[in-house]
Amino acid sequence: MSVPLPAGRRPPRSLYLHIPFCHRRCFYCDFPVVPLGDQADGSRSQSIADYLHWLLRDLAAAPAGPPLSTVYIGGGTPSMLSPDQLAQLLAAVRSHWGLAPGAELTLEMDPASFDRQRLEAVLALGINRVSLGGQSFDNGVLEQLGRRHRANQLREACSWLRQAQQQALLQSWSLDLIVNLPQQSFEAWDWELSQALAQAPPHLSIYDLIVEPGTVFAWRQGRGELPLPDDDQAADRLQHTHQRLQAAGYGHYEVSSWALPGQASRHNRVYWSGASWWALGLGATSGVGTERLARPRTRDAYSEWVQAHAGRQGDGPAAGWPPVEDLLLVGLRRREGVDLAWLQQTGLWGLERAWLERVLAGWIERGVVELSAQRLRLVAPEGFSLSNAVLSDLLAALERTEPLAPTGARLG
Description:
Blueprint: E1 14-19, E2 21-22, E3 34-35, H1 46-60, E4 68-75, H2 83-96, E5 99-109, H3 116-124, E6 129-135, H4 139-145, H5 151-166, E7 172-179, H6 186-198, E8 203-208, H7 216-222, H8 231-247, E9 251-254, E10 257-259, H9 266-273, E11 278-280, E12 285-288, E13 291-294, H10 299-309, H11 324-331, E14 338-339, H12 340-345, H13 353-359, H14 361-366, E15 369-371, E16 375-378, H15 382-385, H16 387-401
Parallel strand pairs: 1-4, 1-11, 2-3, 4-5, 5-6, 6-7, 7-8
Antiparallel strand pairs: 8-10, 9-10, 12-13, 14-16, 15-16
Helix pairs in contact: 1-2, 1-10, 6-8
């Protein structure tokens, strides 16, 4: 039975569904995933069938809301699901919320988990955007990362997606790469960019390697076996990436995202704009109004949670917007930055512009941060590469100043 939202809570128009299963866990990954082995497939996996039972119960109990504008099925490796299982999942979404005309439906896919026939079956279900987890075109690097696929499979998958888009069977697709890997030279990264551009993806997501606790990479780093580029080298590569992709027609619209005109991810923009979203599945985190709710990260705990709490999307007082810290965090990831005038109108921001000028003076002088009468933004590419340092300074100052009590001061 569907659980209603608290009074005054604005229902989201976006949904994230988490499919935790992978063939194997990559050496850099700390996501809530369940490795099932290289031969696993949704059509013959009892583990996947059991999980979908609980995910569909989670979905059925979710609050009602307007038709969805974006749906993102991530993981894990959601392309391990059979087309029939994906059809069941999408049917439940359509039945519960409905889909708005022109809705963006994204599926994450791994090059080793599908062939052309399976791709065509998936697209026939209504999936119109694919996020392809490539990471590298070098077989040695793929082995170093613990990836299952090989470079020839990645190129083949790119060609299928490119042809599907040309035939109007697919609206868009994205290719993931990872930069600043162990022992990666500048020349090796430039070669990766050349290989990626040769595939002509409409969208590129390029992630700077982060060594997360509990991963194989963290263990190797602790043993001194993970030589990584230093900060200056990492920044040089981001600047080079920005220049090469800009010259090829890609806009750097978010810290890790480049897109050709009209090809930005609508779903990801929901997160970065501070809007609300539903999220269902193991380890998934929803954001409804001011509330963030993370579901359990193990299968047993998740099934128990669904039985006890299904439908819950965040309790507490109703409110229209997330805390100002969250809005700054996600807003500064975007090319547009943070609309300070809008923050002030919502009552979340009451500090004078002079306060920001003092806190960020060093960054502004360096040309990393741009502060106008109405907007605060990072200047790409250097600002994006230093975003964590800028945010650290800003959030530390916010804690000291308690800026959530409006002063009535006007910006500008």
